Amino acid sequence: MSEERSLNFIEEIIENDLNSGKYETLITRFPPEPNGYLHIGHAKAICLNFGLTQKYGGYTNLRFDDTNPVTEKTEYVDSQQEDIKWLGFQWKNELYTSDYFDTLYDYAVKLIEKGLAYVDHSTAEEIAALKGTPTEPGKDSPHRNRSVAENLDLFTRMKNGEFADGVCTLRAKIDMASPNMIMRDPVIYRIKHAEHHRTGNKWCIYPMYDFAHGQSDSIEHITHSICTLEYVSHRELYDWCIEKLDIYPSKQYEFARLNLTYTVMSKRKLLQLVNEGVVSGWDDPRMPTISGLRRRGYTPESIREFCERIGIAKRENLIELSLLEFCIREHLNKTANRVMAVLDPIKLVIINYPEGQNDILIGENNPEAEDKGGTREIPFSNELWIEREDFMEEPAKKWFRLAPGAMVRLKHAYIVKCESFIKDADGNVTEIHCTYIPESKSGEDTSGINVKGTIHWVSTKHARRAEIRTYDRLFSVEAPDSEEGDFKDYLNPNSIEVIKEAYIEPYLANADKDSRYQFIRKGYYCVDKESNSDHLIFNRTVGLKDAWAKGNK
């Protein structure tokens, strides 16, 4: 697919820059903040940054933007690295903004010496009040015209820990009347007496992202610094810092971030869902995190294909979750083995099949796979589990499954005919009695009987019990962020359904954690990380069809 599509606007820029000789080597970076787990929006940025250097040569750095010690954890660093590797990418250098704290401090001193930065003792509220509005200019801070010597002394004392958090900040001295509010003397350093996950207690002042970002890019000689659209207004400050410090001129380009229906993408909101126990953790299979999608059974190939299909645009848009589901269905259709699992079991007894006799039938693993995926053995006996919904006491019109007197084929096995059934005291059907036609064995059928319906089954004697977790959309509305009130008011109460007692064919007893399966007629499933040989657990990745599109019609 990638061969056929036209270049996106970033690829056009890169091709021009490389062809004109502006750069010899393309260098990009992926700069996550280690304050949460990566989500599907980050996957788009990962595929873009790493994909460009795969396509045009050069390399991509992984740089953790660790400038806020209060929210950062090594756990997040580890999970983010695992996600990038799982998606199929490898960075050249593992770097941290904290690697550059000494250099960034020197850069700040250089701005002070040039009269382009000052220490401000205004409170955050006072700074905000003097900032002005988009239509009215801001007012100068009373500390704006301190001498270079006084600013150097105060900044040194900030670094040495003489001031408490919030007492003062270092601000760039730019233009309080700038039409771009970000250029109205932005704060570039703040005091935080907090232990950093890498530098410990060496620092009690930390650079703001806007100050650290461009300079870190410059230190690494990043040629194309790719950001999401909310950074368009920050580009002026990015360029200003590079120009005033006279350092390598990295350049920033912006693209539309990924917004997905029926979920939220704010790390703050995702953290809230985790902390409040709405979900079981960052890797809950309902979460839009890469680890959640992985646990749900999504494949790296399907996520890369999704990112390729949505493309790179300059305008914000909302992408349908059903497109992501389409991509995983397409991939699993070609790669997942077909197996039988009964999720709502009712017993079927074949009364003319010898009790105690077992047959071994052969099932095809994947008719869609290029190599057909091979075959497996399936044990058969006179007592089977079938789906409760595959029997109807009083059949509807065009009912092709089991009913009194009706015939149906058992997948990979024989044609059976329903002779009778048993009910309990409450009138529920508990057992169905059938006869089988010995000449109708799949692949060797000489019975001459044609039946329209085929149902799946599992031999009761050989079946393994499993817990099945069926996941649905986390929210019941397309754009929970756009609704009134708290976003949590729109959580889907049916986002998880747990079936404690389903039955699976014995082949699945040794299913490994990296395999995906199609449960025939049910959907695509994978083994959950909590599963073990005594308690098998499968997660539904996605149904066979888009049930939401159908339901919403």
Which SSEs are present, and which pair or pack?
Layout: H1 9-19, E1 27-30, H2 40-56, E2 59-64, H3 74-87, E3 94-96, H4 101-113, E4 117-120, H5 124-130, H6 148-159, E5 169-172, E6 187-191, E7 205-207, H7 209-219, E8 224-228, H8 235-245, E9 251-255, E10 259-260, H9 267-275, H10 290-296, H11 300-310, E11 318-319, H12 321-335, E12 337-339, E13 341-342, E14 345-350, E15 359-364, E16 375-380, E17 383-387, E18 407-410, E19 415-423, E20 429-436, E21 454-455, E22 458-459, E23 464-471, E24 496-504, E25 516-519, E26 523-527, E27 536-542, H13 547-552
Parallel strand pairs: 1-2, 2-3, 8-9, 10-11, 12-25, 14-20, 18-21, 23-27
Antiparallel strand pairs: 4-5, 5-6, 6-7, 13-24, 14-17, 15-16, 17-22, 18-19, 19-20, 23-24, 25-26, 26-27
Q: Can you tell me about this structure?
A:
The chain is α/β, with parallel strands linked by helices. 26% of the residues lie in helices and 23% in strands. It has a 7-stranded mixed beta sheet with strand order 12-25-26-27-23-24-13, with helices on one face. α2 (40-56) packs across α11 and α11 crosses α12. The longest helix has 17 residues, at 40-56. The model has no long low-confidence stretch (mean pLDDT 94).
